[in-house]
Specification:
Blueprint lengths: L13 H8 L7 E5 L5 H6 L5 E6 L2 H13 L5 E5 L14 E5 L4 H10 L5 E7 L17 H10 L2 E14 L3 H7 L4 H7 L1 H10 L4 E13 L1
Parallel strand pairs: 1-2, 1-4, 2-3, 4-5
Antiparallel strand pairs: 5-7, 6-7
The structure holds S-adenosylmethionine.
Length: 218
């Protein structure tokens, strides 16, 4: 799918990267949970003392390791693991980041491992993401849910914003073409039928919405 305006070439949100860069990264070991093929970990590598990326998909971790080697990043390592089950303490993180991999279990584990003043920052799908398909992701967060969770975990929120882009189309064909890369996934999870119905009933939009948050342990 085409990059949304404002994204870096790796598909990362510039405001999110700015929030991270405001921290003394050169002194920190950062844990990237749900790292996938490591795009955030690799972007942070040159700026941080060390980065550990964890993902449960061994194939993604293999790719991430290859990309780190190709980039010559000796301070970035990747580990296969379940970030909703494992304790983060063995990674000794001084900051925890999560990019499109967010859950209550992750926030709870970040809260357990971080000391006072240390940062947990994440980008999560917002509940309005693809709202035209009538089905919010079970991994999505609205502002109220995110605030409640972070408060319960002992974080102070320093930044919380919704990045939202609503694409508007002139025709059904144009709207379908914009989602073509998602068609197979949406056919499998039932979203495609609902999106087509939305378009047949005159809808001509597709919403992308993400919650960008930086929180600090009290
Ligand atoms: C949408 S991808 C985002 C990947 C990466 N953070 C990025 O932005 O490119 C979500 C990732 O989270 C991983 N993931 C989801 N649940 C997980 C869990 N419980 N433990 C480890 N990884 C998990 C998936 O395997 C996937 O790689």
């Amino acid at each position: 799918m085409a990059l949304s305006p404002g994204e870096t070439s790796e598909g990362l949100s510039p405001p999110f990267l700015e929030l991270l860069r405001a921290e003394p990264l050169g002194q920190l070991t950062v844990l990237d949970v749900g790292t996938g093929t490591g795009r955030l970990a690799l972007a942070l590598g040159p700026l941080c003392r060390a980065v550990v990326g964890v993902d449960r998909e061994a194939r993604a971790i293999d790719d991430a390791r290859k990309r780190a080697a190709a980039a010559g990043l000796a301070n970035v390592r990747f580990v296969v693991g379940d970030v909703e089950v494992e304790d983060y303490a063995p990674f000794k993180p001084e900051m925890v980041v999560a990019h499109l991999c967010m859950s209550d279990a992750i926030a709870e584990r970040a809260a357990r491992v971080l000391g006072p003043g240390q940062v947990f920052a994440f980008v999560a799908f917002h509940t309005d993401q693809w709202k035209e398909t009538g089905r919010p992701s079970r991994f999505s967060y609205g502002e109220v849910r995110a605030k409640r969770l972070l408060k319960r975990c002992g974080f102070t929120i320093e930044h919380l914003e919704v990045e939202r882009e609503v694409a508007t189309f002139e025709s059904v064909e144009q709207a379908l073409a914009a989602a073509v890369a998602l068609r197979e996934q949406w056919k499998a999870d039932g979203r495609w039928v609902r999106y087509v119905k939305f378009l047949e009933e005159g809808g001509r939009t597709l919403t992308r919405a993400r919650l960008v948050v930086k929180a600090r342990k009290k």
